[in-house]
Structures are given as structure tokens and as C-alpha cells.
Amino acid sequence: MEAVPVDRMAEKVSTPFYCYSAAAIRGRIGLCQSAFEAIGATIHYAVKANSNLAVLGLMAEAGLGADIVSEGELVRALQAGIEPRTIIFSGVGKRRAELLAALDAGIFQFNLESLPELEQLADLCRTRGCTANVSIRVNPEVDAATHRHITTGVKGSKFGIPIEQMASALNLIAASDGLQLHGLAVHIGSQIVEPEPYRRACRRLRRWVFDMRAQGHAINHLDLGGGFGIDYGDGRCLDYRAVAAVMEQELGDLAVQIAVEPGRSLVAEAGLLVSEVVYRKEVEPVPFLILDAGMNDLLRPALYQATHQLVTLKEPDGVPEICHVVGPVCESSDTFLRQVSLPQIAAGERVALLHAGAYGAVMASGYNSRDIIPEVMVSGDHYTLVRRAVSYRDLMAYELPE
Ligand SMILES: Cc1ncc(COP(=O)(O)O)c(C=O)c1O
Ligand SMILES: N[C@@H](CCCC[NH3+])C(=O)O
């Protein structure tokens, strides 16, 4: 990774740790910008994928906006230097205080996900005598054929306003003093590897834009969300240019500003989870490699049966063997890889799990009273600790009753 051997970092930063490449992130940002800016779309990085301040700093440096889902993400985005006027606030459960914080920050747009949320924001604007740009996040009922835990745009999903409630939403917005209708938003899921689901979503949006304009509503903004899939090792991924082409074909004549909210695809491939083999457990029929990283550090395999390929940090030698790769957490689902062919790896050797830059560190927990592990960013020929470990001692802090 860049010019710093990961093994050298592991001498200084104890394993397990996350390691990101600034050059790899900048490379992905460049590809994303050249595809979407060519169709005039704006890019709002989905902060949830990796909210490390150093990562957000790279997004700010490139002039990207942000898609946030909490006050915490708002504060991080602002701290990293992302312009408030480029921030979109998504999420089904935005609390009053969070809406208020975003109003105070002067963000670009609120994506409304329910009628009660809409009324809450209208009430806040009335009380404060201010206005807010809003888009209605509609549930487009498009199945993006991804893992069921990360599909978001199908009937019965908790995300977005059902199309049957669109008329009520429009009436409430029209009746409010403070809400200014910008447009519509959809987000159909994550790790989508085909452009076709986007085409279906665009076609639905297109019809709604015509319907709403016919009713006299000004629809000037369409937010297509994120979800662009990366290659986790099976060769399947989505090229930004393919999605941008679909958006241009389906929506290009509507005179709307298009926005996208990529998360995973900007950061996943730029991250490694570096770990050490604690033990080799020689059992029949398949030996176990037991790592010092566990499901509390990288939850994706346990939660979504996701595969993160493993590489060794030294030159592989000997005949490959079939083994299971597991973590130390007391759950059978704390398994990174089952029945995988790897070069012989001894206890004490270091390995790296690939494509761990998205939905890795951000989903970590202190389960089993383990530490939250550190994060390192490599840039050129140097590396920086960009988040310290949080020790189980700090996670233990609690107030004793008087
Ligand atoms: C509203 C919204 N926008 C953007 C994203 C980013 O998705 P991805 O990381 O798959 O690009 C998500 C997450 O799925 C989301 O919920
Ligand atoms: N956390 C998921 C993606 C969720 C996207 C957010 N809606 C993953 O690791 O794949």
C-alpha cells in the first residue's frame, strides 16, 4: 500500500488496526467526479461508510458534499471542512434536536422520510421563523437484488415515504410556511452491481416528476442516493460511468439537478484490516487460523455473510492449505472465511483483510469488552495515526448509584 510497508506500521501500531490509503481514496473520488460531474450531477459522500475525520478531510479537499444521518455525522462533516450548503440529511428517525442542529448549520437539504418527520420540521421552521429546503424521499418499490439487509427501496421497507402518501406530503409542504420543496430522493440499496435497478428507479422518478409538475409543483432536484457496488473478489462491481449514463439517458431532458450519495465505492477498496494470527488450531477436518481481529472490529462477514479476502504480509511459501479463518469473539458467527485455500500461515504472522475501508471501523463495537481498534492513514511515504484505540477501560466507565 503506497510507499509504507504495512508490516513496518505494525511494528509501531499494535494489531489489529485499520489502514487506509489516501491515494486510493483520491483515485476513487477522481473516477466518481469524472463520471458524475460530466452529467452535471453533484456528489455527496455518505459519511456513514467511513466517518474518520481524515477520510472526510479528503472528501472536503476534493470539494465533495456529504450525506449525513445523525447530528454526530453533521458535526464530523463540518469539522472536516465540508461546506454546510452541500450537506443532505437523510434518515428515518431524525430527532427534533438533530433537525435543529442541521437548521442552525444551514445545510442544503433535508430528505423527508415520513409524514410525522415532515410535520416536525415544519413546526421547527414555524417556531424559529426560518425556512428549509426539503426533498421527499420516496420508496420507489425497486428491488435492487442485493443482500436483504441492505436493500432499502422495496414495498414494506422502513425507508422513504410510500407513494400512496405522496399527495399528503405535498399538501403538508404546501400548507407549511417554512418548507420549500426541492424535489425527490430515492436510495434503492447498497452493494448494487448492475445499472438496471437504477434505470427502473429513474423511470419511476421521471413519471412522478411529470405528475407533480402537472399539479403545479416545482421539482428541480433529484437525489438518486448511493449503492454503487465494489468488487469484493467475485469480479462483480458497478462502474460509475454506467450508472451516470443511465441517469443521463433517463433524466437528462428533465432540467433537474441530479445528486448522488456514494459511500462504499469511494472508500472500501482503500482500506485494510491488519491483524495477527494468535493461534493455529490443528483440528480435523479443517484447521482454524485464529486472528486477533474479530467480528466486533469488522462485522460485515457475520452480519451479511460478506467475504473479505485475506492476504499474508510475507511472501507466501509452501503448499496452500484449506482452513477456516476466525476471530476470538465468543460467537460462532465470528468467522471471516470458511474452507478457504491459503498459503501456510503460522501463529505470529500478520495478515490483512481486504476491502475493509467501508462499513468497517464505523460498525465496530466493544463486544466481549474488547478495545475499539486504531485507524491509520498512509499518504505518500508516511503514515499517520488518524484515530487512537479506545481501550476497554474507557468503554467500561460507568456511574455508580449514590
Ligand atoms: C440514504 C443513503 N444514501 C447513501 C448511502 C450510501 O450507500 P453506499 O455506501 O452503498 O454507496 C446509504 C446507505 O446505504 C443511504 O442509506
Ligand atoms: N453496512 C452495510 C451497508 C449499509 C448501507 C447503509 N444503508 C454494509 O456493510 O454492507
UniProtKB/TrEMBL annotation:
Look up the record and name the pathway of this protein: Amino-acid biosynthesis; L-lysine biosynthesis via DAP pathway; L-lysine from DL-2,6-diaminopimelate: step 1/1
What protein is this chain from? Answer: Diaminopimelate decarboxylase
Query: Which organism encodes this protein?
Result: Sedimenticola thiotaurini
Lyase: present as a keyword of the record?
A: yes
* Single biological process term from Gene Ontology: lysine biosynthetic process via diaminopimelate
Q: Which residues carry this modification: N6-(pyridoxal phosphate)lysine?
A: 48
Entry EC number(s): 4.1.1.20
Homology family: Belongs to the Orn/Lys/Arg decarboxylase class-II family. LysA subfamily.
Judging by the UniProt lineage, the source's domain of life is: Bacteria
Q: What does this protein do?
A: Specifically catalyzes the decarboxylation of meso-diaminopimelate (meso-DAP) to L-lysine.
Q: Which reaction does it catalyse?
A: meso-2,6-diaminopimelate + H(+) = L-lysine + CO2
Q: Could you name the active-site residues?
A: 330 (proton donor)
Top-level EC class: lyase
Q: List the Gene3D superfamilies hit by this protein, alphabetically.
A: Alanine racemase, Lyase, Ornithine Decarboxylase, Chain A, domain 1
Keywords, comma-separated and alphabetical: Amino-acid biosynthesis, Decarboxylase, Lyase, Lysine biosynthesis, Pyridoxal phosphate
Q: What does the subunit comment say?
A: Homodimer.
Q: Which GO terms describe its molecular function?
A: diaminopimelate decarboxylase activity; pyridoxal phosphate binding
For the ligand (substrate), the binding residues are: 264, 300, 304, 331, 359
The residues the record assigns to binding pyridoxal 5'-phosphate are 227, 261-264, 359
Tell me where in this chain the Orn/DAP/Arg decarboxylase 2 C-terminal domain is found: 17-357
